[in-house]
Amino acid sequence: MFALTHQFVQQIIEGDELYTRVHKNRAPEESQGWTIALMDRATRCLWEMHCGRKDRKLFKHAMRLLCEVIEQTGDVTLLTDGERRYGNLLFELCSQALRTGKRGRPKKTLPKGVKVRLKNKGSQRHKRGPKRPKYQAPYPEHPDTPQPLATTEIHANHLEAFHTSLRRRCAAYRRHTNMYAKNTGRLQERLDVYWIVHNFVRVHFTTRQVPAVALKVLEHGLSLNEIFFIQRIA
């Protein structure tokens, strides 16, 4: 939350989900091991890592944090791979009425400077209705919002690469093993530790910087000893 006190010029944030088992093997829609992650593309800083059942509550928790980021910046772009609930809940939480002086009810849009782009994956055609576009903006955006985003940039490849790394480093996310988490509380504790190490300790191999340093939150990365000596304010 300390990073929210800073002013940013532009942020492109990728959103995606990761699945693992919790307690025992269940159907994916019944599992509480879904992890939603939001990552800044330029610095590889993780804004959010939260686990739970893949429902409205999980997505709304992440979008509330993103709304706080939007309040501190003038340009935020959210890119997702196929999941429409990101844009739906973000529009529900922070949409604004566009007052043009014309008669009638004002149209609702995303805040100025906020863009949401969805890359539809899988089947592009429903049983009924027209074919969905491959790239789309699920909700109307402010007319003064700049639109410099190319279609080739609409992806979550960096976050998917992070998920591959997480499966290697965290045993709870490895496939074909029984080393899954026993409950969501324990799984969230592992995610919190990984969030701290990723953002403030480990140098990212692509940016050659600690994500918090690249985001100008810290002047230099922290060591594990320094983290353990930080006093918690009640």
CATH architecture: 2-Layer Sandwich
Shape: globular
Domain tally: 1
Mean pLDDT: 85
Q: What's the arrangement of strands in the largest beta sheet?
A: 3-2-1-4-7-8
- Total strands: 8
Q: What would CATH call the class?
A: Alpha Beta
Structural class designation = alpha/beta
Q: What count of helical segments does DSSP give?
A: 6
**CATH overall fold name:** Nucleotidyltransferase, domain 5
Largest sheet: 6 strands, mixed
Helical percentage: 25-40%
Instruction: Please indicate the percent range of residues in DSSP E strands (runs of 2 or more).
Output: 15-25%
Radius of gyration: 19 Å
From N to C, what is the helix and strand string?
Answer: EEEHEHEEEEHHHH
Kindly report how far apart the N and C termini lie.
Answer: 15 Å
- The stretches of 5 or more residues where confidence is low (pLDDT under 50) are none
Spell out the CATH superfamily: Ribonuclease H-like superfamily/Ribonuclease H
Main attributes of the structure:
globular; alpha/beta; Nucleotidyltransferase, domain 5; 234 residues
How are the secondary structure elements laid out?
Layout: E1 11-18, E2 34-40, E3 46-52, H1 56-71, E4 76-81, H2 85-94, E5 96-98, E6 107-109, E7 114-119, E8 135-136, H3 157-169, H4 184-200, H5 211-214, H6 224-228
Parallel strand pairs: 1-4, 4-7
Antiparallel strand pairs: 1-2, 2-3, 5-6, 7-8
Helix pairs in contact: 1-2
